[in-house]
Write a structure and sequence with these properties.
Distance between the termini: 47 Å
Strand content: 15-25%
Strand order of the largest sheet: 6-5-4-3-2-1-7
CATH class of the largest domain: Alpha Beta
Bound molecules: adenosine-5'-diphosphate, magnesium ion
């Protein structure tokens, strides 16, 4: 019998469409000789859908029309299995299938940040991506920076504020900003795709930028803005037990800030980017770096991956400043296109990458099942309500 592998994607995130593209690539890469491949689409309303139409990317042009053709489903745990059931049960409706393993291909808040992972944990389904806490740490850049700082991993100097408290903290913000030195870059803690990011050359611009940024997130990060920096990304594949690095890519070569429009050609207008159109999306694989720099970056990537406790295939993004100092910028626990193009040159094609993800999911689950999570005995069996011998718990 073939393993039943579900690819879950979409969700209530600004990166909904990007996830559809990534998932469609992943669905095509899964080997049909080995797996029963099950696409599960999470709509922007957080409802789950199932249907053959999900395999064809051209069906997503009109999402409302697509949803009408699909079957709305719920996942039900029964007899130690997870079953796919139609959400509206008629007299003759039957189970649509079962799931053995999930490959989450979701990006951004409300899905990639531990939300979907928590749901899968409740169902006790093996899944390839980072677990609840690692996913959450990766999504919130404030928490991520604190966790990485604890392992002495270098990051650009920074501080953060709650956007709704700036009126009470202006003095402190001004002092902290001066300590970093202008220009600064202002980012929301939990978004992605450059949404809500702005720059400031002085205090007034900083307050404006925080005010804009706080529309997207409570937590606002203020970071030293690097000039003439390089952006290099490194994918890591595995789990805390065993992990490896892919080839490095350099992105956005010599083009400055990369906004949402430049990344995806969309129109999430919120950044005052100084970017230079599509040319700025340039990428070079492998990145042109000295052997020692490459080794250094890969080592930091593995250390970062383990410190966060990630799993599956992730992408860790670095900034390299004029003095050649390497800083971790962020971790993408589920990167766009699952970073498959960083594994191909290593001899791992997309299909083999999916095989490895399935294996990681099953391996993690078997390790988890060996851990002790609950006691065999029920302490309540000895509890007698009202009796004096009833022990205090
Ligand atoms: N400290 C910095 N100095 C200069 N540019 C930066 C800095 N941090 C980020 N950037 C630029 O902004 C882009 C988006 O920032 P990033 O932290 O990666 O946010 P997102 O999660 O939205 O991708 C980066 O790709 C880089 O071009
Ligand atoms: Mg980024």
């Amino acid at each position: 019998m073939k393993l039943k592998v579900a690819v879950m994607f979409g969700g209530d995130s600004v990166e909904h469409e990007v996830s559809i593209i990534s998932a469609n690539q992943a669905l095509k890469a899964l080997d049909l000789n080995k797996y029963d491949v099950i696409p599960i689409y999470i709509s922007k309303k957080r409802e789950f859908y199932f249907g053959e139409e999900l395999f064809n990317l051209s069906n997503y042009k009109d999402l409302d029309a697509l949803i009408k053709k699909l079957t709305k489903i719920v996942l039900v745990k029964e007899d130690n299995k997870v079953k796919i059931e139609p959400s509206k049960k008629g007299l003759f409706s039957k189970t649509l299938g079962e799931i053995d393993v999930v490959i989450p291909v979701v990006h951004g808040t409300n899905v990639e940040d531990g939300t979907l992972q928590g749901y899968l944990e409740m169902l006790n389904l093996p899944y390839s991506s980072s677990d609840v806490i690692s996913s959450a740490v990766g999504q919130d850049k404030v928490v991520m920076k604190c966790v990485l700082q604890q392992a002495n991993i270098k990051m650009v100097d920074w501080f953060w504020v709650y956007g709704f408290e700036i009126d009470d903290n202006k003095k402190e913000i001004k002092e902290n900003a001066e300590k970093l030195g202008y220009p600064l870059i202002i980012k929301p803690a939990s978004l992605g795709s450059s949404i809500g990011i702005n720059f400031a050359n002085n205090y007034n611009e900083l307050i404006d930028a925080i005010e804009e940024c706080r529309q997207f997130d409570n937590k606002v990060i203020i970071e030293k803005k690097l000039e003439n920096f390089r952006e290099v990304n490194c994918s890591v594949l595995g789990s805390i037990y065993k992990a490896k690095t892919g080839v490095l890519e350099e992105v956005n070569i010599g083009a400055g800030f990369l906004g949402f429009d430049e990344k995806y050609g969309g129109s999430k207008k919120s950044t005052k980017s100084s970017s230079k159109g599509m040319a700025s999306t340039s990428r070079q694989v492998p990145a042109k770096l000295s052997k020692s720099k490459e080794k250094e970056i890969k080592q930091i990537a593995l250390k970062t991956f383990k410190q966060i406790g990630s799993s599956g295939v992730v992408r860790i993004d670095f900034l390299i400043d004029e003095k050649d100092i390497v800083y971790v910028n962020e971790i993408n626990n589920i990167p766009g296109s699952l970073a498959f193009y960083l594994w191909q040159p290593e001899g791992i094609d997309f299909s083999s990458l999916m095989d490895e993800l399935v294996e990681i999911a099953l391996n993690k689950q078997s390790k988890k099942e060996k851990m002790i999570f609950s006691h065999e005995t029920n302490i309540l069996s000895k509890y007698e309500p009202g009796s004096k011998t009833g022990k205090k718990i």
